[in-house]
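Justification of computing resources. Each target in the renewal requires a structure prediction run like the one illustrated here; the chain below, 408 residues long, is used simply to show the kind of job we budget for.
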Amino acid sequence: MVKDYGELKQELRRSVLERLDYGREQSDEEVLEMIDAVLLEGQILRQLPVGESHRLRTDLFRSLRGLDILQGLIEDPGITEIMINGPDSIFIERDGQLTELEMRFESAEKLQDVIQQIVAGCNRAVNEASPIADARLSNGARVNIVMNPIALNGPIVTIRRFPDTPITMEELIRWESVSREVAELLRQLGQAGYNIFISGGTGSGKTTFLNVLSGFIPPRERVITIEDSAELQLQGLRNLVRLETRSSNVEGCREISVRDLIRTSLRMRPDRIIVGEVRGGEAVDMMQCLNTGHDGSMSTGHANSARDMLSRLENMFLMGMDIPLTAIRKQIVSGIDIIVHLGRLRDRTRKVLEVKEVVDCEGENIRLNPLYQFEESGENAEGRVLGALVRKGGLLRDQKLRAAGLGL
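Resulting structure tokens:
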């Protein structure tokens, strides 16, 4: 039955393509009318049940104007991740659980067509000569593509879908991802211009949390965001500039890296600079931003703890500049005020696990002042981890709070 449906869909698709006028732009309504005409002429609507004919009509339209079988998955608000391991294997993540789907691409060529459609939409290129690419969809979803010959069972496509409406701090409190007390602390620190670095593992919610924290930035300030692939959803900022990196291509366009964008952003009169993620040598330029009067800047990075994030920053700093570790640590201490570490627990919930203040250098180590720490208290009958963010101490450096006229 599946094979018959696939063959019927391909045959009808060819019929619609023959009717398209390639000399002008045709609207979605015109394409749907052509699909309906083809279905009526072939008596298809009478041969299939109502539900099946509606599905066929939708699938035909998506194969012509959308991303084929991916379109329905991308439009499903309950799906947070789509993983394509070649044309015959598709997994999704819903409510933290991975599920393999029965749907398949018609062929490897069809999957290739969908990939080229994705990268063309954001002026990127991916092929055998350049088999790795990061892209984004029109709805802001992040896409990573790995092609042959790098991916032996490829092409591999991973799509991270973000909520249609940005998540708020109130929602995070309701989901018990953060306590109201910590949320109020972060609100005051954000307004006062503390430089905040968000760390965590893959899928821990770093980008979402960065979006939430950006809601505490006073609307009068000029903010510049810098990302590999634009996915931040900053709200309420009128004076907002969004910058995105560019890969080099065969047409001769040179690469524009995060480092390039950070440097040029300094000449754009920013109040705050937000870097989506620090991965390498751009840590040098990011620290220079934090140490040259751009208070309230924010960024994220991959790490297993707040302490581990500092070690990773040291290593990334050395990728971009060969200077003594002592000097690097002084730059980090001077630049970063607060580290918020996120994690994904064994019950698949995302939580704030640590909030630590970066104080000073003590010998060869950076001294951290723990403000809050998540402490487990057990599990409930459904296997959900119980616990709370426990206060460990108060801020040692409150100059920015006092300068902003705020008090904890």
